[in-house]
Every structure is written in structure tokens, then in C-alpha cells.
Amino acid sequence: MVLRVLGVAPDEARSLADRLGTAPPWLAPLSSDFAGSAAIDEITLNSGPASLIQQNQGTGPIQRTTLVWSVPDHVYLMSGNVSRELAIAAANAVQ
Questions:
Q1: Residues with Cβ < 8 Å from 42, sequence gap 6 or more?
Q2: Does the pLDDT at position 79 exceed 60?
Q3: For the residues of 54-85, what is the DSSP string, one character each?
Q4: Burial (0-12, 13-18, 19+ Cβ within 10 Å), 9
Q5: With the C-alpha atoms ordered 70, 25, 53, 19, is the resulting torsion angle positive or negative?
Q6: Greatest Cα pair distance in the chain
Q7: Structure pTM?
Q8: Dist CA 45 CA 35 (whole Å)
Q9: How far, rounded to the nearest angstrom, does the alpha carbon of residue 3 sit from its chain's CA centroid?
Q10: C-alpha span between 76 and 88 (Å, rounded)
């Protein structure tokens, strides 16, 4: 429901909810113009699956990269003005 309020299409919102389980993207600092300014990719970290969310301002460069992933006893969220590659490398370093 939260993804739908943010403007994510019904099929994509349902698919994301089914895939993400314990690491839902609504834990991330998403803006109300999410649908028009962000892309969500499912990636695989050393510790397992993760959601990579990249937000921009219109057609400009990426303004925020957010990575959400979980392990059996923790949910991690990393967010900032970093590249996709740096976010993945930092997440893979978490033990």
C-alpha cells in the first residue's frame, strides 16, 4: 500500500512486496514523487538478496542511492549520495 501511495504501479508494487519480505523498500527514505524519480533493482550481495534504490531529480544525475538488505537477525539500510558500485562494495564489507 505504501508503494502505491508513492505512485508505484500496482503490478510492480505487488512484485516488490512479494520479493522483499523482511527488507521492504518503504524503510528507505522515499519521497512522494518516487515513481517519477527512482529506479529499484534487485541485486545479490555476499550476504544475499538486496534492494538498490536510486533516486534523482528529474532527468539529472543520481542524487541518492539507498541499499536495503537483511540477514536472519538484522535489517540494514544504507543511504547517501554515493555511486551504485560504492554502495554495493560497502554493503559487501558488512559482516
A1: 19, 49, 50, 51, 52
A2: yes
A3: EEESTTS-EEEEEEEEEETTEEEEEEES--HH
A4: exposed
A5: positive
A6: 38
A7: 0.64
A8: 25
A9: 12
A10: 12
**CA atoms of 91 and 95, how far apart (whole Å):** 9
Give 79's Cβ-side CA count (13 Å radius): 16
The predicted-structure confidence for 34-60, as pLDDT tens digits, reads as follows 556 677 888 999 999 888 888 876 666
Q: Which three cell numbers stand for residue 19?
A: 520479493
Take residue 60 and report the three cell numbers written for it.
539529472
- Whether the CB-CB separation of 32 and 6 falls below 8 Å is answered with yes
- C-alpha cell at position 85: 558500485
Length of the chain: 95
- Residue 63 C-alpha cell reads as 542524487
Joined grid coordinates for residue 47: 550476504
